[in-house]
Design brief:
SlyX, coiled coil, Protein SlyX homolog
Length: about 80
């Protein structure tokens, strides 16, 4: 193989390698962006979950603190004497 063809082959191999590197860098940048977006979504959902947990705990505490009523339910009431 002549020196000129060897240089052309090396130049072509270098160009291919550079293209592959650029493609990989683009993919990594896209993946980093996607990971960051997923991380933000996860953090937001975690905050919502914590807020819901707090609200449910508050509702449970309120329900537990409700005193039973001394008033009979409608189904337990005796009909008035004139019936």
């Amino acid at each position: 193989m002549s020196e000129n063809k060897r240089e052309e082959a090396l130049s072509e191999a270098l160009a291919i390698a550079n293209n592959n590197i650029e493609e990989l860098q683009t993919k990594v940048a896209f993946q980093e962006h996607t990971i960051e977006a997923l991380n933000e979504a996860l953090a937001s959902q975690q905050k919502q979950l914590e807020d819901l947990h707090y609200k449910v705990r508050h509702v449970i505490d309120r329900v537990k603190s409700i005193q039973p009523s001394n008033i009979a339910k409608q189904s337990e009431e005796m009909p008035p004497p004139h019936y």
